[in-house]
Each structure stands twice: as structure tokens, then as C-alpha cells.
## 1
Amino acid sequence: MNSNQTIYIRPGLSLCVVRAWLSSEDEQALLAALYAELTWMQGEIRLFGRSVAEPRFTAWCGDVSYTYSKRVLEERAWHPRLRELRHQLEGWLEANAIATPHNLNHCLLNYYRSGQDSMGWHRDNELELGSQPVIVSLSLGAPRRFRLRQKNNDAISPLTFELGHGDLVVMYGLTQTHWEHALLKTRQELGPRMNLTFRSVAS
Ligand SMILES: O=C(O)CCC(=O)C(=O)O
Ligand SMILES: [Mn+2]
């Protein structure tokens, strides 16, 4: 096992963190290329009956369509760098004996312009991800606090990781049943961060 790699096991949670899975040169070049070359959109959410812009930008690639946050992300051709990363990460999962039913056939990307952009508490538990979703998350750019807490139980301490600059997190097992995660707003002056989540989606 890589010395940068730590596994966290808690009741209902299995998580692996690999620090600097990508080297710092690679992660900067990748962030710039993906920002320039992918099609980014800003989604809308309903809040108290009004439509407001989501506090982040989203892009994706996938062999199959995926319904995320009530929005259908249609199948979309892979960016060559994302296709390459997908295969490297599939190799990493295999080496670590983490099984995915459909390989990593979808990648959702989020771009947080500053500390004011965010993602609220949620689980990635859509039916099409299966009963034990494997979420492979790569973070580029400015580190941000990624938080996890057990759902409906504050007896178990939440977890927090600063994730950026090529760090990899893999959530697996029953994590998406019992734990929620979020990237909350911060007043800190921070540069942009991009997050790539590779998923295994049933068609
Ligand atoms: O930006 C992150 O680290 C989290 C992204 C996330 O939870 C998601 O895309 O579902
Ligand atoms: Mn998520």
C-alpha cells in the first residue's frame, strides 16, 4: 500500500484517502485544461419556491446517462484526460479490491470559484449507483474542507479532510447509506477548486 494512503472505518463508513495521488504539476495542468475544454453549466435549484443558481459550476462525461440531483446528465463523450484518469482509477480500485458493477462509466465535475461556492449535505445514493455506491473523488486546486457525518446520529464524531492539489478520496461499502457529506461555504479567501467524482452507473 502507498504510504500516502489511509483507510478510515467507522460504523457504516468505509473511506480511503490518498494524499497527492496526482503530482502538483499534473494537477495544475489538468485543472487548467479541464476548465478550458469542458462544457460547464450552472444549474438551478428551487429554494422556498424560487429558482436560484447553484453556487458552483458543473460538467460531466459518461458512457450512460445519470440522474443527479433531479437533473438528467445525458451520455457525453469523454475528454481524453478524463478517459485516461478513469482507466488509471479503475486499476487502482482493482489493486485495492474495491469492486464496481459497471466500471467508472461516469464522471461528474464541480468547479468552486471561491470559498463562497459550496455543496450542501447530501448522500450519493441514487438507485442507479447500486446498494453500495463506489464514489472516486479527485480534488484539484485550492484545498477545501470536505466533511462527513453519520446520518441521524451525532454520537459518532464527524470527519473532516482538507482536499485539494491532487488528493483522492474513495467512499465505498455502506457509506452512502449511513453517512452524508458536504463542502460548506467559507469566508476564507480561497482560489478555485475542481472536484471530479467518478461513478459506476447502471444503464
Ligand atoms: O467537491 C467535493 O469534494 C464533493 C462533491 C460531491 O460530493 C459530489 O459531486 O457529489
Ligand atoms: Mn457527493
## 2
Amino acid sequence: MKPGINRRQFMQRSLVGAAAAPLVARSVGAEPGAAARPVPANDRIQMGIIGVGARVQSGVMQSALAHPGVEIVGVCDAYKGRVARAIERTNGRARDYGDWRALLADPSIDAVIIATPDHWHKDQTVEALAAGKDVYLEKPMTLTIDEGPEFIAAADTSNRILQIGSQGMSSKLQQTAREIVKSGKLGKITLIRATYDRNTDSGAWLYPIPPDADEKTVNWEAFVGPAPKRPFSLERFFRWRCYWDYSGGISTDLFVHLMTTIHYVMDAEMADMVMATGQNYLHKKTHEVPDTLVAAATYPKEGFTVSLGGTFNNSSASQSGFTIMGTEGALVFRGNELVFTPENPVEGNGWIVASWPSALEEAYWADPEVQKREMPNTWPSAMNSEGESWSEVGPDATIVHMSRFIDSVRTRKPSSEDARAGHHAAAVAHMVNESIKRRMPVYWDRDTDVLRKA
Ligand SMILES: NC(=O)c1ccc[n+]([C@@H]2O[C@H](COP(=O)([O-])OP(=O)(O)OC[C@H]3O[C@@H](n4cnc5c(N)ncnc54)[C@H](O)[C@@H]3O)[C@@H](O)[C@H]2O)c1
């Protein structure tokens, strides 16, 4: 649940979202790769959740539970306190499977939500798809750029639904932004400025650690899994985004939201080059990952460049969002508002012609075309146009995104954010980190859809 939304409002919004999902057919318990088996619309979807941490318990599980027929029957997590709290949130209906592989082995579970730290995403998703489950996987899809093709292959061969959880793209505002861009209202778009800025401990992922967390309540081995072996650390466990073993920092945690949106709104597939710089200026004691990033990603085929900026040291300029800049207007997206401002360029050559011989200057200003273009009292009325704005109304984006997943599970309609979209959005974020590491631009080969090695 989002701050500022009480439980009743959340449930009301949830039901609006749920009603939007047509309930037609679903495939349950099919073998991996088997054709979808339609079942009656009112049949239940039994869901399991792998990783019931902050994201799941602050909105994702409530979004799933808001849908009639959806039941959360199983959970697992590496910290006991979260398991207990999640089961409480299902009114005791969910069972603790202890281990994620045990949860996947239960044939009565149709679909899983995976919301573990990023270093677990690949193994758990690939195994879940192979076990015949439909998967809602939290963003970013990958921990490394090389993992992408494995996800795509697993989704393609399993014939299961894989939806990545970048909920923003399901918001009404982002859909409106996409329609505006498609309509041509912005003219020729050449630059998108995107930012993600914060300036709090919580914003920098220095979350409070539960006082009962210790080697008895935290399963360190289960957390580390495929990551490098390290001594027990509550900081690593609860603040994993600060460490390269489990996360790509600002770029993969936050820029990935921006990139998903930009790809969606602009109907763009993938950048061809990323050049970036990243420094850790103020968080050296707590973060391996940089606290300040600036990057440029170019899309020559689509004809625009994206500038990305993010810092944990100041949030006054913006919190997060982007501005799409076209020759006819700009579309600014911040928080819950989308604003279109028409572009009204007025030429101003007065200071140039003032250096001409006076007869030529006089002749210049006598030209009616010049007057129309350059004299304030003849500026077109569009100069005074205030533009348009839209505010987010209706259900929260996570609810709508979950509705789309549940709709796909029931109808076998393709995922609204599939493995390719998840791979490309995350790949741009990984290219940012790769460019910082290599200290040079990095290139994507769009023909073979892989990062160029050098
Ligand atoms: N879409 C969004 O807006 C959004 C917002 C926040 C987080 N997220 C994503 O959600 C995921 C989880 O983030 P979070 O903030 O909830 O982190 P978190 O640390 O609060 O939760 C992750 C949970 O996974 C558990 N876990 C770790 N290894 C496990 C294993 N092997 N088996 C079972 N459970 C295991 C941990 O114990 C923890 O409770 C991340 O991928 C993150 O990027 C998305």
C-alpha cells in the first residue's frame, strides 16, 4: 500500500483494477511446454510467493489478493519475521514452504511472484518456468547483462507467462504519454532527460534492520545462494542494493524504471551506445555502488538520445521522472502528473542585425515576414498557450500491472512486459555500469542483440 492511501481506498482501487481484467480461461498445472488448457473463468489461481520482503508486503501481495479467485497459498523467505508477517496478511491461509524449490515442486501452485534480491532472479525464474508456473518477476529482470538470453529462452520454451514487474508502464499516465508521442503532437523528438534523485537514508537503501534479526532468524546461506560466499552480515542481507554481489545500484534499481517507461512510451527497443560516469562521493562507508551517476544512451535508429542522471545527495531538482523534448512541444512526467507544454520558438536576430550597416538593418525590420517572426506584438497567439496536463486517477499502477498478469494467466494472452522488454530495459542499466567500469562508451549490437565485448 502506498503512503497516503488507506486500506479502504486501496481495496476500492483494487476492485476497480480487478474488474478491468476479463476472466476467460487459464492454464493450470500443465507440463512445461504444453499447450494452454482453458478452464472456467471463475476457477481459482493458486499463487506462491518467493521472497516476501518489503516490496511484496507493501503492495504486490495486496494487489494479487484484490483479484477474485486469486489465493496466495504458499510463501517462502530467508528471514522468519517476514514469513510470519506475510502469512498473517493472508489471514493464515498461506503455508510456509521454507525453501523456494519446495514451493515450486508443489503442482497445486499455478503461478509465482518472485521478489527476491536481483542475484536470485535468474535461477528462481528459470526453474519456476520449467516447473510449469507462470511468473510475475520484480524488476530488474537481470543481475548481469549475460543473463537476459537465458530468461528469453526459458520463457519461449516453457510456454508459460513471464511478466516483469515494472508497474509504471501499466499506469494510465504512461499510456497517455505513449499515445501523445504516437500522435506526433511533440514533433520530432531528439532528447529525453530522465532523472532519479534522492537524499535520505531510506532513499539510499540504508533501511532499518529488524531488532530480532540474527543467525537464528536469518537464513544466510539461502540469501547468498549463487552470489560469492561472504561472512554473515545483516547489512548485506537487509541493504543488499548497496553491494555489487546482489545489485547494480542506482542504475539497475532505479534507472531501469525510467528505461522501461522510455522504451514503452517511445516504442523503442534498445539503445545502441551508452556512455556513463559514476562516483561514490558521500556513501563510501556503506555503499560499494556509486551514489552519483550521469549517463547518455543513444537510439540512432529511432532518432533520439536519453540523458540519465541520479544522485543520493540532493533531491531538490526533481524526485524522478523525465522530459520528452520535441520540436513542437515537451512532455514532462513527474510523480503523478503529466504536463504538455507547446514549443513556441521565437527568433531574435535583433542583436545580429544591429551590427549591419544601418540601411540593411532598417530593410531587415521592414520585411513583414521578419516582423511576424521576430516582433513581440506580432507573436503568434500560440505563444500564450498554457498547454495541457493530466493527473493519475484510478487504480494504483501495481494493481493494474498485476491485473494484466492475472489476465494473461487466465487467457494465455502474451505478457504485457515480457522477457525481451525486461532484458532490454535492464541491459541499458547494465551498460551504464559497464561504461563506468570500462571508462569508455559501450555498444550494443542490434543485429545480434548482444553487448559488444570491446
Ligand atoms: N517495482 C517496484 O517498484 C519495486 C519496488 C521495490 C522493490 N522492487 C524489487 O523487488 C525485489 C525485492 O526487493 P525488496 O525491496 O522487497 O527487498 P527485500 O530485501 O525487502 O525483500 C527481498 C526478500 O527476499 C528474501 N530472500 C532472499 N533470498 C531468498 C531465497 N533464496 N528464497 C526466498 N526468499 C529469499 C529476503 O529474505 C527478503 O525478505 C527486488 O528485485 C527489487 O528490485 C521493485
